[in-house]
Amino acid sequence: MSIAATAAAGAACMELIEHYQPEYVIRFNARQEACSCPACQAASGEWPKTRITLGNQQRESLNAACESAAREILLNPDAFMLHAGEIESDGHEQNPWDEALNQQCINMAVHPALALESSLYAIGVLLSKAQRYVEENQRDPQNLNDMGEQLAQLAEAGVLSEQLALLPPIEVNRVEALGEMGAMRLNLNLPPMQKMMFMLKLSELAVMEPARLQERLRELEQKPLPLLEEKPWILRNALIYRLYGEGVPGNSADNYGEALMSLTRQFFQLKMLSAMWLEDNQSLTEEVFIVLFSAWSSWQAQQPQAEDAKHTADYVLLHGLSLI
């Protein structure tokens, strides 16, 4: 067989998979100037470009620890408009279950009838049902698709938002989550004095007595967050980014409670950081939120993946719901 014939045969056998580039990647790649944020100054190679392969999809993304990337991800309401194509498979083992579960989570995240908190609740309901399927060895993606359709109907009817409103508050979990934030070490791109004062306030959470920590939680939760209320796509994009760019709950995950906890804890922490900023500053601007989000993203990436071996997936999932 000639070289040309061999090449043609190889091309014929080449497997193509879906390839996605969201608008935020396109816009970032079109930038004329390099980013000079702290994360980029310490980076090399193709940073902050990332990609994952999930099922039959390869997804391009960016690391949000880069402030320029975070701006494109969060501030543009159309950041997740997808540009689709095909690309040669990298030989990654396809897992239709993981792909279907992630897609249904994304569907709940973008559902127009759901506020952010209701989307998180819907994802929790979906992951709870998926956990049952896994434990019963019923990993048929069609089960997830059917569940997604049912949840979409409940969302349209307002049932999911009603169910979320009826969840009993478990303040002790939120107090504990606030105290854990005292261990955060954020490399904030702020003037030195502002950075020092903010980090001092954050570290104080680690040494507060439970009663004072409870008071602190109530103070922060009562703080209005005008930026995030007036521009709801900022946090919405942050949720879609986690699902799209990381493939949450992840390849071959076996505890979906931990996946939900990682999502709800993220938004709890971002809201608390925003409220803390507003205690000493007149406003929370887009630029300041980008600084907070990028520093949080960098810190989060350095944390070991949480594994709660002491509790069941259901327990962890309910704990996650209590942080919404």
Short description:
The chain has 324 residues and is α+β, with helices and mostly antiparallel strands. It has helices spanning 3-13, 23-29, 38-41, 67-75, 96-110, 116-135, 141-156, 159-166, 171-180, 192-204, 210-221, 226-230, 233-246, 256-280, 286-301, 313-321; strands at residues 16-22, 49-54, 57-62, 82-88.
Structure description:
It contains 16 helices and four strands. The protein has helices spanning 3-13, 23-29, 38-41, 67-75, 96-110, 116-135, 141-156, 159-166, 171-180, 192-204, 210-221, 226-230, 233-246, 256-280, 286-301, 313-321; strands at residues 16-22, 49-54, 57-62, 82-88. It has 324 residues and is α+β, with helices and mostly antiparallel strands. The protein has two domains: 14-88, no CATH class; 96-324, no CATH class.
Q: What brief labels describe this structure?
A:
4 strands; 16 helices; disordered N terminus; 4-stranded mixed beta sheet; alpha+beta; 2 domains; 324 residues; 8% strand
Quaternary state of the chains: single chain
Largest sheet: 4 strands, mixed
Integer-rounded radius of gyration? 21 Å
Low-confidence stretches: 1-12
Write down the secondary-structure element order. HEHHEEHEHHHHHHHHHHHH
- Counted up, domains total 2
Q: Please report the total strand number as a whole number.
A: 4
The percentage helix is 55-70%
How big a fraction of the residues is strand? 5-15%
Q: Number of helical runs?
A: 16
Q: Supply the helix-strand structural class.
A: alpha+beta
